[in-house]
Design a protein that fits this description.
The structure is a single chain. This protein is an alpha+beta fold and about 55 residues long. It has a domain of about 35 residues. Helices cover about 20% and strands about 25% of the residues. The protein contains 1 helix and 2 strands. Strands 1-2 form a two-stranded antiparallel ribbon. The longest helix has 11 residues.
Length: about 55
């Protein structure tokens, strides 16, 4: 499946992104992968305890 999303980082900066994922991928899987692969997140490893949210409009 292909999704067009707006990614809002903790700093408040937003970017439009396109995600291509397997239809069996959960929202949690997609969110975790975006957080892990975000090139603007810096060199720090993603915090596994961090709560990721999705807001659909």
């Amino acid at each position: 499946m292909r999704l067009k999303l707006t990614l809002r980082r903790a700093s408040g900066v937003t970017d439009d992104i396109v995600v291509t994922a397997d239809a069996s991928a959960s929202i949690s899987d997609v969110a975790a992968t975006i957080a892990r692969l975000d090139p603007h997140a810096g060199a720090a490893k993603p915090d596994p305890q961090r709560v990721l949210t999705l807001h659909a409009t």
